[in-house]
Amino acid sequence: MTAGGMKVNKSGRVVYLTFPGFEKYGFVRHAFSTRAGGVSGGVFSSMNLSFGRGDDEKNVMENYRIFCKAAGFGFETLVASSQKHGTSIRRVGKENAGTGIFKPQDMESADGLITDEPGVTLVTYYADCVPLYLIDVKKHAVGLVHAGWRGTAAKIGAEAVAAMAREFGSRPCDMAAAVGPSIGPCCFEVDKPVRDVFASVGGIGSPDGFIKDGRNGKYHINLWEANRRILKEAGIPDSSIAVSGVCTKCGQDVFFSHRAMGAARGGMAAFMEIKEENDGN
After folding, report:
1. 127 and which of 46, 100, 256, 260 could share a cystine (Cβ 3.0–4.6 Å)?
2. pLDDT higher than 70, residue 228
3. pTM of the model
4. How far, CA to CA in Å, does 80 sit from each of 132, 175, 238?
């Protein structure tokens, strides 16, 4: 079963999405959560993976344990971002395990995480913003990036590609990427000031390709296309960039959406790791 360009996976009550094109990279495990399969109630029902929103932290922690077991990640290997809608990219390793999950955050801000260590699971948070998955298929390194509209306009995807080149010697031509579920061009309506920010982004072609005039002075931004162009400009081959095409606001029965629900909601998470050699899956 597929949703947009993604595969729908079910394990018990847990439902999560993966990119079929990543299956050929056997050293990588990745996932994007949905609302299904957790223990949280009310506006957090049920697989809420966001701390600090009013849900009982015991529920959130249990949700992580349930999700990790269903999707094949080790709970003890999780390393979470500290997101501020910026462009900071942080390299992490096994010494950071638990950060932001069962250990306090130890960083001021990092909207992107990269690693080349097996058994380190990168975690970033979402409720309409864009997850970017990056794989260096030669050096066996990965990155996971939270691209809100500000981060997208500031080309955080390109920042992550540059960070992987700097830290691991990654070459963009050896990389694959995916643009995950987020608010789609159908629903991301903005005023002129935000439109003007995107129109001024250089190096990614005509803004007509990702900005559409709407009604009553409103505009629709295609964050998927903007991020695809940014990753392509950074050197990743066009043929190696997948786009989910899954809108979280349209699918608010399946996903948490800030635009649809406001602040009273839970959140999803993206996960990515390099498998350890003794991993049989």
Report:
1. 256
2. yes
3. 0.97
4. 15, 23, 29
- CATH number belonging to domain 2-183+240-274: 3.60.140.10
User: Is 1 a residue whose pLDDT tops 80?
Assistant: no
Q: Where are the domains of the chain?
A: 2-183+240-274
**Would you say 229 and 189 are in contact if contact means Cβ atoms under 8 Å apart?**
no
